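To whoever is on call:

I kicked off a structure prediction for a single chain this morning and the downstream step that reads the tokens threw a length-mismatch warning. I double-checked the sequence; it's 137 residues and nothing unusual in it as far as I can see. Pasting both halves so you can look.
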Amino acid sequence: MTTPAPYSAQVPPPQNGDNNYNAVQDKLLALGQALDSADSQLEQLQLRMKLNAQESENLAGHIAHAELDAVFVEMQNAVSVALGGAEKAVSSLVARGREVAAKAGEARTTHARLYEGLNRVRSGRRYRTPKPAFFDD
């Protein structure tokens, strides 16, 4: 039996409180890339769980065929059912991850559409721009 390899994801580092235009664009891009990276790894996990569930079910059949005690058949079937359930949960996680990655891309596009022009004007100024609400009474 093989031992599982430690998980070594390329998770983006915690972000600072910098929320200027470029920082937000970079954060959204990093989120989308991290989710895309996790997607393929989760698909591999899902496949391994499915194969292990099938193998466990086959093993239960072999145990029954060898006429071992029924408790062992039941335990092996329980393992198979648990792995099948976990495979379905990972499948759902893959789908949700894809949705979030798509939403991150949409958010990045919307953010660019709304604020890119403002960023261009603000970054092209010679003097600093007042903080928000500076002109409010």
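Update from on-call: the warning came from a stale cache, not from the record. Cleared it. Sanity check on the structure: The helical segments are 21-65, 70-124.
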